Prior knowledge:
The chain is mainly beta. It is built from two helices and eight strands, in the order H-H-E-E-E-E-E-E-E-E.
Amino acid sequence: MLILSCDRTKKYQSQGIDKAYIDTDTNNYANILFDDEEMNFGKIKEGEKVKVIYKFMNSGPSPLIIYDVKLGCGCTSADWRKTPLEVKMRDSLTVIFDSTHKQGKQMKSIVVFYNGYKSKFKVLTLTGIINKI
């Protein structure tokens, strides 16, 4: 069993995110809708870096805030919008995978934490095959 807890209010107020976006009633939560939750980078050679862009839309009734993105290992990095995304607006999350010292079939998880109501996170996957040099 895995239990996670944190005080989001203090953390995100320090980043300039208004408390009103964090502690709101259920009518004011956002929803993140990704075009694709699973991406495959195909076949690459060991040592190559791959850039993958996950496009999404805020389909909820309130501005979307991505609080954090957790990656499966140190071989991936992510860049995302740190300010609220207005309703019905689109944006993207960029993930870079470094295949150094990797071989064979790969599957990496990217967990996106946001200000949703029923779901407060979305799990994305990145797969591909790395051929030895």
